[in-house]
Write a structure and sequence with these properties.
- The chain has twelve helices and 23 strands.
- It is of the alpha+beta class and about 450 residues long.
- The protein folds into two domains: about 220 residues, Enolpyruvate transferase domain (UDP-n-acetylglucosamine1-carboxyvinyl-transferase, Chain, Alpha-beta prism); about 200 residues, UDP-n-acetylglucosamine1-carboxyvinyl-transferase, Chain.
- A hairpin with a 3-residue loop joins strand 8 and strand 9.
- Helix 1 runs parallel beside helix 3.
- It is globular, with a radius of gyration of 21 Å.
- The structure holds shikimate-3-phosphate.
- The site of shikimate-3-phosphate has 10 residues, from helix 5.
- The site of shikimate-3-phosphate (S3P) has 10 residues, from helix 5.
């Protein structure tokens, strides 16, 4: 929520081998979407494995203010939703506060854009700095109007419309949030809307539209672009959604095992969508002893079991076209690079500048603080690997309200020569509330540190 939590500094210390079986939480992207589609279906949707992190809980709160009945039904991760149907949202009598979550606010703006109600959206200091124009532009094609701070920043009031016609939009930034906002708005517009995507991004929205019974098709055009057609105003059918473990959260555990001598860790039921698994391919190219087994499909998504063992890593070049499939993983990949042999180059990273923090700047400052030489320009990061176990550590890392910066640098501390203190870990609760206890159970020495 917008009130800043008290900073929670922590320090990660050089640790013994990490051993065991880990269960990271449910996938954040799928969790947001399961709640939103459940709220837009007619009848009762049940969810198993929902991520109960702050980002997702804020989406649940907004959906309740819009009229959906959303309850936790008992054991962790089990939720029940009574949906209001496409077009059934009522005008909320409070501001919709999405805290730290770009996905939550952007998808929800799309979901209300073609219902004739007014809604005001806000977030925390990080979210209120992030660009919303990329979503407002496609929503305006349906006739939706918005009044935001400095034009396109939160807090922002959106006036939804009774859309009279479908819309067509070609994406200019590779963003699943933009794609999803457009498709959610198109759901309540009459006729066939079309979205064209040049670079493939995560496809959970398209898959869930299909699973909930919408008439949606995805085809490649002669230029290799994805063309997504959606027929508006369907009656969505409720269903049971099983949320697989989040590969972006599993990434921290995997890299910790690769870097901490003697480690061997297994993680099961991890989402293995090709739109999300770029980090794993990259680590394997770096020489990681990392295997993915028991690949199968559950709820329309591929899932698998990951085994990761301590490994010597070699620096490689990561091409720009891989960025959309691992966009959230560069902070933790930069920690792997810091422990590799050679100079690692990661390209096509401009989008990192507009995440929960300016992640390129935050990674560069963090690596510098722990004694790793690196250089970032507008969309590239180069890291001079120190070699296995040779990161000096020591300096204070500033997390800039970014959960992934906090987790990445705590992992760095487990195999560095000296401990790594991190100024604030409170934001980890947005995506991985169990991170610290889970890592401690595997053997990690992460301790509370004085502010
Ligand atoms: C997400 C899309 C990505 C990603 C974010 C989750 C989603 O953002 O960084 O954590 O669930 O659609 P962009 O759409 O801005 O690339």
């Amino acid at each position: 929520m917008s009130n800043l939590p008290r900073p929670t500094p922590m320090t990660a210390h050089p640790s013994p081998a990490l051993q065991g079986h880990a269960r990271p939480p449910g996938d954040k992207s799928i969790s947001h979407r399961a709640l939103i589609f459940g709220a837009l279906a007619v009848g009762r949707t049940t969810i198993d494995g929902l991520l109960e992190g702050e980002d997702v809980l804020n989406t649940a709160r907004s959906l309740r203010l819009l009229g959906a009945d959303i309850q936790k039904s008992g054991p962790p991760g089990e939720w029940v939703i009574e949906g209001v149907g496409v077009g059934g949202f009522r005008e909320p009598d409070q501001v919709l506060d999405h805290g730290n979550s770009g996905t939550g606010v952007r998808l929800m703006m799309g979901a209300v854009a073609t219902t004739p109600i007014a809604a005001t959206f806000t977030g925390d200091a990080s979210l209120n700095r992030r660009p919303m124009g990329r979503v407002l532009e496609p929503l305006s094609l349906f006739g939706t109007s918005t009044l935001g701070r400095a034009g396109q920043l939160l807090p922002l009031t959106l006036q939804g419309v009774q859309a009279r016609r479908p819309a067509e939009f070609t994406m200019t930034v590779p963003s699943a949030q933009v794609k999803s906002a457009f498709l959610l708005a198109a759901l309540n517009a009459p006729g066939r809307s079309r979205l064209i995507e040049r670079e493939a991004t995560r496809d959970h929205t398209e898959k869930m539209l299909k699973a909930f019974g919408a008439d949606v098709s995805v085809a490649l055009d002669s230029d290799g672009r994805s063309v997504i057609d959606l027929v508006g105003q369907p009656e969505l059918r409720p269903r049971h959604v099983v949320v697989p473990a989040d590969p972006s959260s599993a990434a921290f555990i995997v890299v910790a095992a690769l870097l901490t001598p003697g480690s061997k860790v297994t993680i099961s039921n991890v989402l293995m969508s090709p739109t999300r698994s770029g980090l794993y391919a990259t680590l394997q190219e770096m020489g990681a002893r990392l295997t993915i087994r028991d690949l199968r499909e559950e709820g329309g998504e591929p899932i698998g079991t990951i085994d990761a063992e301590y490994s010597d890593l070699t620096a490689i070049r990561v091409p720009a076209d891989r960025a959309p499939s691992m966009i959230d993983e560069y902070p933790i990949l930069s920690i792997a690079a810091a422990n590799a042999i050679g100079r690692m180059r990661m390209e096509g990273l401009a989008e990192l500048r507009v995440k929960e923090s300016d992640r390129l700047a935050a990674v560069e400052a963090g690596l510098t603080a722990i004694g790793v030489r690196c250089a970032a320009d507008k969309d590239t990061l180069e890291v001079n690997g120190c070699g296995p176990g040779a990161v000096p550590g020591g300096g204070l890392v500033r997390t800039q309200m970014d959960h992934r910066i906090a987790m990445a640098f705590l992992i760095a501390g487990l195999s560095a020569r000296a401990a790594v203190p991190v100024d604030d870990t409170s934001m980890i609760a947005t995506s991985f509330p169990e991170f610290v206890p889970l890592m401690r159970r595997l053997g990690a020495r992460i301790e509370a540190a004085p502010a």
